């Protein structure tokens, strides 16, 4: 398996919408981890160009992450929300698309990469079989034991266990507002539950920014740690200046649907606070709010842009990605050795 061949159990989270770049993915892979190219929001042709650019920078394994398409939302669910926003902000068309799922799948079958992962749902057993037949491993992002069992039944090779602490969109198969009343599982709890429920490797994601946190998820049974926010301040990342600045502060995070119509974690700001009851309608609201978010980024206005980040964002440091991987690896090793030493001393 790809995980067995890595020099360090560190996986780059696929951060669609800006932070993900071929340079960042390649730097993580070159340092011994597993880089990821985020395919979300990209047409298949652009994804192909980014895969080519990544290959030009590294001969090592890397992965590509796809957004599994959701069902279209009925217009009456979100029309009043978009109308309300339009009275104050520039808004675009609240459209639906499949994020070019079928074309991207065909591209990855014709031009395979080491790993293909999915978020927002699980590919069908037939789709997974096609990807595996061309030599790709298939990883599926899950947030519950039920999702994990579904993914394993479909043929997933690895599960990415996304805990509640993670920044950006929740990777749930269905964004059910009824689940808002249920506490989402944290990373450590989810990894333990999955280890007891399924027999495939687990990659832990959510709130992991330090080497000690990498050690922590390895200690409870994860095969590797996936980090996103930790890499957002790296020079290779395409993170916008307004988000780079915000991540370095200590603003708390919260979950919101205000920007995209799908539950996501970001730094608390005025827009999120002003729209606590945004409807479930992804990707329609995502497209509608595109102009207002673009305007806020251009103006450096942190109150009107989605500042996706995990709960431990203030611990992220500004280092080249390769150096960060090596630092995290050394710190994780030291943390595990300290923990083992302390345990021995208690007996």
Primary descriptors:
nitronate monooxygenase activity; Dihydroorotate_DH_CS; three-stranded antiparallel beta sheet; 40% helix; TIM Barrel; 347 residues; alpha/beta; oxidoreductase; eight-stranded parallel beta sheet; NMO; 14 helices; detoxification; 14% strand; 11 strands; single chain
Set out the fold topology.
Elements: H1 2-5, E1 10-12, H2 22-30, E2 35-38, H3 44-57, E3 62-67, H4 75-86, H5 101-110, E4 115-119, H6 125-133, E5 137-142, H7 145-154, E6 158-162, E7 168-169, H8 187-197, E8 202-205, H9 211-219, E9 224-227, H10 241-247, E10 253-256, E11 264-267, H11 270-274, H12 284-288, H13 290-299, H14 321-345
Parallel strand pairs: 1-9, 2-3, 3-4, 4-5, 5-6, 6-8, 8-9
Antiparallel strand pairs: 7-11, 10-11
Helix pairs in contact: 2-3, 3-5, 9-14
Please sum up the structure shown.
With 347 residues, this protein is of the alpha/beta class. The protein is built from 14 helices and eleven strands. Helix 2 (22-30) packs parallel to helix 3 (44-57), helix 3 (44-57) packs parallel to helix 5 and helix 9 (211-219) packs across helix 14 (321-345).
Question: Your description of this structure?
Answer:
This protein is α/β, with parallel strands linked by helices. The protein has one domain: Alpha-Beta Barrel (TIM Barrel), CATH 3.20.20. 40% of the residues lie in helices and 14% in strands. It contains 14 helices and eleven strands. The chain has an eight-stranded parallel beta sheet. Strands 7-11-10 form a three-stranded antiparallel beta sheet, with no helix packed on it. Helix 2 packs parallel to helix 3 and helix 9 (211-219) packs across helix 14. The longest helix is centred in the last third of the chain and has 25 residues, at 321-345. The two termini are 37 Å apart. The relative contact order is 0.16.
